[in-house]
Amino acid sequence: MTELAFDTKQPALQACAGRKVSCTNCCMRKLCIVAGMHSDQMEAVDQLVEHWHPSPRGRHIIREGDQFRQILIVRSGAIKAYQTLENGDEQITDFILPGDVFGMDGLATGRHIAGAIALETTSVCAIPMQCMLESTGLAKAAEHQVLALFSESLNRKDAHVAMISMNKSHERVAAFLLDISARLARRKLSSSHFVLSMNRSDISRYLALSQESVSRAFAKLTQAGILACSGRQVDLLDFQALSRYAGRTGPADLQQAG
Amino acid sequence: MTELAFDTKQPALQACAGRKVSCTNCCMRKLCIVAGMHSDQMEAVDQLVEHWHPSPRGRHIIREGDQFRQILIVRSGAIKAYQTLENGDEQITDFILPGDVFGMDGLATGRHIAGAIALETTSVCAIPMQCMLESTGLAKAAEHQVLALFSESLNRKDAHVAMISMNKSHERVAAFLLDISARLARRKLSSSHFVLSMNRSDISRYLALSQESVSRAFAKLTQAGILACSGRQVDLLDFQALSRYAGRTGPADLQQAG
DNA sequence: CGTGGTATTGACAAGTCTCAAGACGAGTGG
DNA sequence: CCACTCGTCTTGAGACTTGTCAATACCACG
Predict the structure, then answer these.
(1) Among B3, B50, B79, B104, which residue carries the largest CB count within 10 Å?
(2) Which chain B residue's Cα is nearest to A109?
């Protein structure tokens, strides 16, 4: 089985994965920058947007220090954003799913601070910043959308901070799974049954835990009957219970419920 | 002594604190949205910008759930941004210093997710979003700046994540102090001698630690001769050593060096 | 059927959280 | 000037969780 963040049996992503499509019939148009645009506006954006070739798993889409030239939107696949710290450790700063924008980190200084690597075969669209600022008509139409996506990106980071702030490993993992689940749901994909596109090590560096703790957290949640998992395949069995843990040692605490 | 994030003896902030000023002679013009603008552009922005009355310590500037109407820029003072979690805990998501923008979290959904409270007497400028999108001339001039500030905001959040990801409490506190220090330096204020405007509890909820651990971390760094502090007054004595700790258990580990 | 990357599991040391008590400083009222 | 109070900050001791090191299991792939 190939590694996908989504169940390929579901139609939405399969429709456009890997193929060059125009914005008007792109499956991500409801989440991306063209959301809410008229078809003529969309066509204007289409002229501007570069549809890049799909990147295979492991390929860098952005390298740390690269010059900033455009903002990017994922059309299909999944990406991890990372930053190399002074001591050489790789901090995973984001997991980017179809419809998410990324690459705005380079706008402030002109150079990208964070790198981005495809977690599986991934297609992205690029909106060159230069064009964006020059083309008045489009800028007008897209400006609000761009800002909204920025804002969403900011909120995603706050959610990340909230996740890491939980003190128990199974809470962080529960919150992580719920977050992924909710984001998949927004994309009309199964929220209870999915295949993670990142390995345990990526998750651990995203959640500020050791790989082993992530593994143990999965085991704990499994033993509690809250989820079933085999490697990256995850089935969420009890959302309520999961939410309780993600809600930071809420009403009921996790005992060896078995 | 009043509580300030900055040494009031330094001229930059004193000049405009609390008084209504135009952008052209605001002390924050080099960091804010009007950075790099011609004076005529600046005046156009000036027409648009609302200079709000100073907020006393403890006052809400934004409440969670408030309708989004404008983005805000701090002119003087300091602010904490927070989010109430499911279990009622307050997660501090940001400390906002003069020249920083905030409030963009509300753009995505139209309502603010995070609240903002003044940590000391604080003046902010508001740029109504409606105006911003409508006034073409200005939008053109300010667009790049707005995006750059957004981008900076994103990068600040990644820095926050990196901070929380450190596993030892004194590393997180070291990173925190270096971050504050660097941000003060950008504002031409003393980077080695300052008064924190937030209490230990705020710091702890920002760094995902208990209050006690923060206190102990301060003590540890003090005993190691790296800083001197008395309550919120902080003097950084050894930047190199501080950077080593903030660099995540780097070359030299912190022993009871005394 | 090996091989390499990934994932799990165990045991111990190390660090943090929690609970609890006390110290300190600023502000108030006698 | 003093005693008192409140919020903040510090310090101590024990329980608990995680990180680390190490060994083993698992899976896809050639």
Answers:
(1) B79
(2) B148
Domain with CATH 2.60.120.10 in chain B: 11-155
Cross-chain Cβ contact B151/A87 below 8 Å: no
Q: Which of A33, A101, A107, A143 to mutate to test the interface with B (most CBs of B within 10 A)?
A: A107
In terms of Cβ atoms closer than 10 Å to its own Cβ (0-12, 13-18, 19+), residue B140 is middle
pLDDT tens digit sequence for A207-247: 999 999 999 999 999 999 999 999 999 999 999 999 998 87
Torsion (CA) B226, B189, B126, B105 in degrees, nearest 10: -20
pLDDT of residue B177: 97
Report the candidate in A120, A78, A136 with the shortest Cα–Cα distance to residue A102: A78
- Per-residue model confidence (pLDDT) at position B255: 42
* A104 contacts A153 by C-beta, under 8 angstroms: yes
CATH number of A166-246: 1.10.10.10
Return the higher-pLDDT residue of A159 and A34: A159
B7-24, pLDDT tens digit by residue? Answer: 333 333 333 444 457 888
Q: Which of residues 185-204 of A touch strand C (CB under 7 A)?
A: 199-201
User: In chain A, where does the domain assigned CATH 1.10.10.10 lie?
Assistant: 166-246
Alpha-carbon distance of A139 to B138, in angstroms, equals: 13
Q: DSSP label at B122?
A: B
Give the mean pLDDT of B143-160: 90
* Interatomic CA distance for residues B27 and B46, integer angstroms: 14
B-contacting residues in A 48-67 (Cβ below 8 Å): none
Which chain B residues in 122-161 lie under 8 Å from chain A, judged by CB atoms? Answer: 133, 136, 139-140, 143-144, 146-155, 157-158, 160-161
Residues 6 or more apart whose Cβ sits within 8 Å of residue A254: A168, A170, A220, A224, A245
- As a whole number of angstroms, the distance between CA B144 and CA A130 comes to 10
The pLDDT assigned to B137 comes to 60
Instruction: Locate the chain B residue with the closest alpha carbon to A110.
Output: B148
Q: The CATH number of B11-155 is which of 2.60.120.10, 3.20.20.70, 3.40.50.300, 1.10.238.10? A: 2.60.120.10
Q: Mean pLDDT over residues B73-98, rounded? A: 94
The structural architecture, per CATH, of the domain A11-152 is Sandwich (2.60)
pLDDT above 50 for A2 = no
